[in-house]
Design brief:
This protein has 142 residues and is mostly beta strands. The chain has one domain (3-135). 0% of the residues lie in helices and 49% in strands. The protein is built from no helices and 16 strands. The strands form five sheets. An eight-stranded antiparallel beta sheet has the order 3-4-8-9-12-15-2-5, with no helix packed on it. A two-stranded antiparallel ribbon has the order 1-16. It starts with a strand and ends with a strand.
């Protein structure tokens, strides 16, 4: 099924729920490396999603209420987010699609208040998801 092709400047919007963790999310920016252009911007192709990294995101859990910090990135695309036929420079273009899989990697653990010392979160990664927002409302790929 045809869907809008992603281009440089489009956003990866992450949902704030990553398992039991709640993350203060910010959008990530897509940078296309395809050979084709839409609206004078390079199209995104397979692999460009790996460069979407959002550092410095605060998080906490129900038990760990002293915020920690980590980074969000796209773990994998849904089947409808990579074109099967439409290519640029020999690589499949990326499509808006549905939900991609995301990962939150803990860099400084959130902590549970406790005396004499707070108890750190021992989970190092949390899984979540997100969606793409595109400014391309004209060109679709399949």
């Amino acid at each position: 099924m045809a869907d809008f092709i992603l281009i440089t400047g489009d956003k990866a919007n992450f949902n704030p729920t990553f398992g039991i963790a709640t993350v203060n999310v910010r959008p990530g920016d897509l940078i296309g490396t395809g050979k084709s252009k839409i609206n004078q911007k390079l199209v995104c192709v397979d692999g460009d999603e790996k460069n979407v990294i959002v550092p410095g995101c605060l998080y906490k859990t129900a038990q760990h209420t002293i915020p920690g910090v980590g980074m969000i990135f796209i773990e994998s695309l849904a089947g409808n987010q990579k074109a099967k036929k439409t290519k640029s420079g020999g690589k499949p273009v990326l499509l808006k699609g549905a939900l991609f899989n995301a990962k939150f990697k803990v860099l400084a653990p959130a902590q549970q208040p406790s005396t004499p010392n707070p108890i750190p979160d021992t989970t190092l990664e949390y899984l979540g998801n997100g969606t793409f927002m595109t400014t391309n409302m004209k060109v679709k790929g399949t």
